[in-house]
Amino acid sequence: MERGKMAEAESLETAAEHERILREIESTDTACIGPTLRSVYDGEEHGRFMEKLETRIRNHDREIEKMCNFHYQGFVDSITELLKVRGEAQKLKNQVTDTNRKLQHEGKELVIAMEELKQCRLQQRNISATVDKLMLCLPVLEMYSKLRDQMKTKRHYPALKTLEHLEHTYLPQVSHYRFCKVMVDNIPKLREEIKDVSMSDLKDFLESIRKHSDKIGETAMKQAQQQRNLDNIILQQPRIGSKRKFKKDAYTIFDTEIESTSPKSEQDSGILDVEDEEDDEEIPGAQDLVDFSPVYRCLHIYSVLGARETFENYYRKQRRKQARLVLQPPSNMHETLDGYRKYFNQIVGFFVVEDHILHTTQGLVNRAYIDELWEMALSKTIAALRTHSSYCSDPNLVLDLKNLIVLFADTLQVYGFPVNQLFDMLLEIRDQYSETLLKKWAGIFRNILDSDNYSPIPVTSEEMYKKVVGQFPFQDTELEKQPFPKKFPFSEFVPKVYNQIKEFIYACLKFSEDLHLSSTEVDDMIRKSTNLLLTRTLSNSLQNVIKRKNIGLTELVQIIINTTHLEKSCKYLEEFITNITNVLPETVHTTKLYGTTTFKDARHAAEEEIYTNLNQKIDQFLQLADYDWMTGDLGNKASDYLVDLIAFLRSTFAVFTHLPGKVAQTACMSACKHLATSLMQLLLEAEVRQLTLGALQQFNLDVRECEQFARSGPVPGFQEDTLQLAFIDLRQLLDLFIQWDWSTYLADYGQPNCKYLRVNPVTALTLLEKMKDTSRKNNMFAQFRKNERDKQKLIDTVAKQLRGLVSSHHS
């Protein structure tokens, strides 16, 4: 039973599945029916399904037949109507065909016209599109053409601006064209070309500046000189802003339009034509000579290209190299002033350019860079000047060099450069200038002293008298009262030397000008230099003249007189210096002139030379002495040589009338002492081994002649017999021997008031020894042998006693 239930359940299930398949076949598209049929064949109930399918087909046929039967009459009616319409349709077809044929025939031309219109419309559209594209490309091509023109005419900065517009504005709009790609590829090359060409222009500018820096510096120094002259003219007026004005004028320079499109302004590379500028009344500003546009262009181009730092480094490096070249002085610079001037012009030109670059560009150079260059320049310049100026021996060249250095310093000071070290160095050069002046004046003094006649200046008229007084401060009321012709006491070298001292002071003053020194410093400098002139140069010149071998007593006497008057003129030199420096001598720390000491020393040297010269003349006369020491004749007159000597001394001392009294007296006393000493030495010299009483008598006559000369008062001012005291030693010695007064001498020896106080026992013994053993050669004593023997015994006795005195004196 259960099996029957199960079979029944399976049968129902199969029937339901078949029903589903049939519905699916009915509702599914024919192309997709494959899977459905496949499920039928996959099952076991294929037969039963076919049965059901046949049953379902039959059912559908019945339904179709029913439906056809229901609509058959309507179908028949429709066929009937369709048959009726077929005839009318044929007629309509014929009409349409005929109408079409006519239409085709009539519209053939229109179709052709329409085809032509279509082609025209197409061309018009193409032309419009082409014009639109060309309108986009033309600005690009125009800009590129403009760029090439600017490159060709070397207007590089505008070319760079054009290149920027082309790259960023125009090319992006037409970037899909091939020619644009070519342009884009060329842009870096064009930039590099502009960069190279602008750098080449800068190099040309730097080279031109290097060659013409001396011209730039010369113009700047001329302008500074012009301004200084103007300042001197209006010295009494306020100088408000004068230097500022000069510097402002100096900066009214070539005002360059950086973006100028003028080919001329683009091609200028440095120095403008200034050949005829010297004929103009007004000196142009230093920077008016220079076109700085290459620097500006190159700076802007590198800034736009993003390489400003590279440009700055290159510019500074090149200018440092040029600075070292400029600061290298030529080896022969010291020979002429033009050598120094060219050297200074180059330095000034260099720094004028740099100062202008500093003030007209932003950051190309800075103050630290300028200060570094100036410090280097200052040290090298000062070192070069120290070296080369030391070779200079011409004071005029040293003075011109000083003026040039001052102008050099003033010029650079206007541009803001510190120049204190230059003025400090000028103080060093001042010492050298003083030395060169001293050497020059040594030659001047030597010429004056060599050419002087050492005779009082004669004047025959009032005009000549005033001329001399105008040259030398001399006042003498007695001389003024004397009638013409008359003579000044001094020779021509006095006014000449005095005026040369004043000229030296003027020369020293010239160097101190424009050194920004106070009056006290100028006064001190002049006084110290003048003291060197007096104490060293003039003193040496006078000493050389005084020490000359061929100098005569007359010249020496005149030198003493001249130096006396020059000594008196020192106060006038003091006043002269005070007048030109406006510094009173009472001012603290004021140096005093040492002229008085100089002339005193020269006078003393001349006096000593007079004494020496007189003594030498005396020695020359004494060399003519020819005594016969063994003579027995008694003379009755002085020797000829001594008479000549006395005559010479009288004439010589007659010249001493203008000398100071003490000088003449000292000279006279010195001459008498030297004469007495020389006569004593002549009497006692070792070569005279024997002498007779007759020889002593002749010698005594000569001494009496000397004493007579002393008593005659050859030089006024001696008291009583003072001059005779020079011969007292000789007189007492001769009196002792001639009078043979040995008893008195020996008895009074050692007494302060003894008669023969000046007779030294040694001297007496020496002379006595010479008188021994003269009997054999003396005819006077030949007949009186006994008297001779007595005399000899007496001499021996006296000699013995004298030896006793000598030995007791030494003990």
TrEMBL record:
Domain of life: Eukaryota
Pfam families assigned: EXOC6_Sec15_N, Sec15_C
Coiled coil feature spans: 82-109
Domain Exocyst complex subunit EXOC6/Sec15 C-terminal: 421-770
One GO term (biological process): Golgi to plasma membrane transport
Residue ranges of every copy of the Exocyst complex component EXOC6/Sec15 N-terminal domain listed in the record: 52-221
GO annotation, cellular component aspect: exocyst; plasma membrane
InterPro entries: EXOC6/Sec15, EXOC6/Sec15_C, EXOC6/Sec15_C_dom1, EXOC6_Sec15_N, EXOC6PINT-1/Sec15/Tip20_C_dom2
Swiss-Prot/TrEMBL keywords: Coiled coil, Exocytosis, Transport
Entry's family note: Belongs to the SEC15 family.
Function description: Component of the exocyst complex involved in the docking of exocytic vesicles with fusion sites on the plasma membrane.
Protein name: Exocyst complex component
Organism: Camelus ferus (Wild bactrian camel)
